Amino acid sequence: MTDLSDLPPARSGRSALAWPAVPLLVALALWAYAVRHTDVSRLDDYGLVSALHPTFWAGLAVLTTGFWFTVRDARRPAAWSAAYVLGLLVMERATQAVLYPTPLYAWAWKHEAVIDHLLTAGGLQTADQVGDMAVYDQWPGFFAAQAALQRLLGVDSTAMFMAWWPLVSSLMLLLPLLLIYRTFTEDRRLIWTSVWLFYVANWVGQDYFSPQSVAYALHVGVLAVVLRRFGRSAVRRGQPRQAVWTVVITVMIVAIVISHQLTPGMLVVCLLALCLSRRYRDWVPVVTTVVIFLAWCLTAALPFLSAAMPDMIRSIGDVGANVETGYGATPTGTGAIATSWAARLLSGSVLLLAAVGVWRQRVLRHRARPLLLVAAAPLPMFAASSYGSEMIFRVLLFMLPGAAFFAAAALLPKVRTLAADAAAQGTGDRQATGTAKARRWGIGTWVPLAALLGGTLAFVPAYSGKDRINYFPPQEVALVRQLFDQAPDGSLVVAANRNYPDAYAEYWSVDHYWFLDDGRGHVDQIVKSPAATLARDMAGVERPARAYFLLTQGQVANSEMNGQLDHAQLQRIQKSVAASPRFRLVAENSAGWLYVLKQSEGAER
């Protein structure tokens, strides 16, 4: 069977072999300088993009260029390509952790609250005890593991390390990706370019502190084992070893199923797609996944699924829900629209390159057909559910391992070119070698480099362009924590939306109401008569509980950039509450305001 092959490494002196260290070190030095001279205290609608020091972009360009010329040179050990990929992960995934003094993403803070609840309650609870938040107790794998890690490390909160989780979860993907790609080629150029494109195209933002980040890494891990150990040739080598790998994937599947709702479904469709190939027509992985998935759904997860099933059935076939826009779901402002388009163009370009790779590299259409099936398998999930209008992003994410491989193939020379180069080196054919060098420095080098560089730079706005929404300064964290430090059990917290740190803190004893989740009619009523309407909404809270109104910069950013209320409207609400005799200011700082509803007899009725 034809395969992509490496040129044998040639030893041409220590200095020649070590030259890739120069652009790598220069890039990291530029990055280090950039993070020391970047100010994130005043983010605009372009997020981190406009805040970054120019040397960051220069460093990223140097890193990408150095990687491209290093990975194309077969004389360079694979360790250099690995070093560049690690440098890319540092610049992509560690920059935010270094720059921001607090963790990003309201959802990450929510997951921290779930872990805190698990440690406080000492066990799982039902919907009668914690309401809608019981869904997390029905898929507790990630939270139980993090609670154990928190105790093992002896830290007060997972917030101590969750800012670094995007880097950690990205590193967890590296080994299974390498195993998958090495299953179909030994060409180090194709392997490492695929890995690079995977990380560059993975802007979806599911690598934060979340169950799906771990479940996705396990999903890719299961695919790696199946692709390497469950093909026909592997099965023929012996059943005892096959039984060991069955146990390995069973453990990973159990961890996926008890941690996340969507990932098991994606794994099932990918494994079913593999069965379309005679090489991987082994039903053990599929049956194992389906049995474990159904067993969990019919036991621990049954309360949630029983309530959600009617809506899930109604959403089947509603493909349009994946691209719905409207109130609260429309990027608003030049920055939000620009970053949204950067993400779309990045994903579209990678998928287009993948199509070119399938067409251009004939050998891959046969040898890597199973990976092509895995890349296409998530597409039917569009019709299964909108998943809160996020299914389109999840489908892109699960397509990426295969799509990145074929996209990388589009950037590299054809197989016969590699074979010709190898033959020329073996026979000493100077003319063939000269032709290879001309190709090496011609359009086949610079056009792919431009594509790789454009994608790498586009990752930054796609991934970090909404940091104005996702970043909560220390003042905002302090304000919210002051609220929960004083709120008695049974209290009510009213806010515009849930985009603030610790929004779910003590959710088992404190109620929350986000008025922008209401119908548009009630929101308009609040805008028209803020203090009176909010006081009426909050009046049912009885002593010793209190009713609080919280407005922070995270809520304002989320509302403005998603097409809800603008800054002037929210400012009018805040000023109305501040001027009302029914509210008392509890605390304020540069990140927001906290008011409490006075509980006099007149205010309560």
Explain what the structure shows.
By secondary structure, the protein is mostly helical. Helix content is 65%, strand content 4%. It contains 32 helices and 5 strands. Helix 10 runs parallel beside helix 12, helix 12 packs parallel to helix 15 and helix 18 packs antiparallel against helix 25. The chain is globular.
Secondary structure elements and pairings:
Elements: H1 14-18, H2 21-36, H3 48-51, H4 54-71, H5 78-99, H6 106-121, H7 127-130, H8 134-138, H9 141-153, H10 165-184, H11 188-201, H12 211-229, H13 232-236, H14 239-257, H15 263-274, H16 284-297, H17 302-315, H18 334-360, H19 362-367, H20 369-376, H21 381-384, H22 391-411, H23 415-427, H24 430-440, H25 443-464, H26 467-470, H27 474-486, E1 492-495, E2 511-514, H28 520-528, H29 530-538, E3 547-552, H30 553-561, H31 567-579, E4 583-589, E5 592-597, H32 601-604
